[in-house]
Write a structure and sequence with these properties.
With 209 residues, the chain is α+β, with helices and mostly antiparallel strands. The protein has helices spanning 16-31, 43-46, 56-64, 66-79, 84-97, 104-113, 130-141, 176-190; strands at residues 5-11, 34-40, 152-156, 162-166. The protein is built from eight helices and four strands, in the order βαβααααααββα. It starts with a strand and ends in a 19-residue tail after the last helix.
Length: 209
């Protein structure tokens, strides 16, 4: 079996686009020798410097966004990074597929589904984990710069240096060979020296299946 390539993936469970990219990465694991390693980043942290400029509705969403990432960091600190993937799936399923409220009760449901203690949800009510949250966020965002969002993906390059990028932003999440082709193409452009951006206007909402 070929050695698996580690793909570090920074996510905020609040973001539906990051959720779709994460589901694509689970497909990539099936069709390419890739192993995803999950990390937490935070749109709430990212947008702090421009908090006064944000639309009221988005500012309110970001305020609710603190609790989920704090709970994820608390779970990682207590039980190790291997719990992040299953817990992200449990939270994201509720947020994006079931359209459940971004509340403590929903986080407790997610924790219990993956066998983690419900009291971890209390971490969402305190800033006790914010130092570690900010460090995890910084580790990802420093690879790509401040003018992007979630997700951030990083893989080892041919010279040993990390190749990191924001996205890809895609809907619906490709499956099977389509997922493999997108992975191959993303790595091809991301590893090209001096390459920065491909973009077009989004004309579709996130499509979940």
């Amino acid at each position: 079996m070929p050695e698996k390539t580690p793909a570090d993936f920074w996510f905020d469970p609040l973001c539906p686009w990051a959720w779709l990219t994460s589901r694509w990465m689970l497909e990539v694991e099936k069709v390419r020798p890739v192993e995803v390693r999950w990390h937490v980043m935070s749109l709430s942290v990212l947008n702090e410097p421009r908090a006064d400029e944000l639309p009221e509705q988005y500012a309110e969403l970001l305020q609710r966004g603190w609790a989920p990432v704090r709970v994820l960091i608390a779970a990682e600190e207590r039980f190790g990074s291997e719990v992040l993937g299953p817990l992200y799936t449990a939270i994201g399923t509720r947020f994006h597929l079931q359209d459940k409220p971004r509340t403590k009760e929903t986080l407790i449901e997610a924790l219990e589904e993956v066998g983690l203690p419900a009291e971890l949800a209390d971490a969402g009510d305190t800033d006790a984990y914010d130092e570690r949250l900010r460090a995890s966020h910084k580790a990802g965002i420093d690879l790509v710069g401040q003018d992007v969002g979630t997700p951030v993906i990083a893989v080892p390059g041919a010279d040993g240096e990390q190749i990191a990028f924001f996205g890809p932003v895609v809907t619906p999440a490709p499956k099977g060979e389509a997922a493999a082709r997108l992975w191959d193409g993303t790595l091809l452009v991301a590893s090209t020296p001096g390459f920065y951006e491909i973009k077009r206007t989004r004309d579709a909402k996130p499509q979940f299946d």
